[in-house]
Amino acid sequence: MLSEFKDFIAKGNVMDMAVGIIIGAAFTAIVKSLVGDLINPLIGLFTGGVDFTNSYIVLSGEVAAGASLEAAREAGAAVFAHGAFIMAVINFLIIAFVVFMLVRYVNQVKEAAARKEETAPEPEAPAGPSELDILMEIRDSLKK
């Protein structure tokens, strides 16, 4: 059973998948930073500084006026957190667009490499004997 497990792990597909997961986790951190640190502040700038994350409706319970979503949840109130959902949708769309652009770029690079391979000149067929070869052959024939 242990040898079967070693064979399974040693297969290329499993190793490729593991590398993909590790790179995906690192890429997730980059995209989260892009969205949270760069794009969301720009969205806030265009929307007049409105942060949808703390937009909610109290369904039941007591919450101080102007309290954050986190404070409302800590107070035990049932809240309808529509702002957090809106921000999650916006973040998803941004992340999906970034991933799309990355995949598009990789596909373009692959297509360019494939086109380069297709248009690579075929090695030329050897031409007939050169003029020098013919003259040398004539000279050798005359010597005989």
Task: Give a verbal description of the structure.
- The protein is mainly α and 144 residues long.
- The protein folds into 2 domains: 1-50; 51-118, no CATH class.
- It has 5 helices and 2 strands.
- It has a two-stranded antiparallel ribbon.
- α2 (12-46) crosses α4 (82-118).
- The longest helix has 37 residues, at 82-118.
- The termini are far apart.
- The model has no long low-confidence stretch (mean pLDDT 81).
SSE order and pairing:
Elements: H1 2-10, H2 12-46, E1 57-60, H3 69-74, E2 78-80, H4 82-118, H5 131-143
Antiparallel strand pairs: 1-2
Rg is: 33 Å
Termini separation? 80 Å
Number of strands: 2
Mean of residue pLDDT? 81
Report the structural category. mainly alpha
Number of domains: 2
Return the string of H and E elements.
HHEHEHH
The fraction of residues assigned to DSSP E strands is under 5%
Compose a concise summary of this entry.
By secondary structure, this protein is mainly alpha-helical.
Can you give keywords for this protein?
2 domains; two-stranded antiparallel sheet; 2 strands; 5% strand
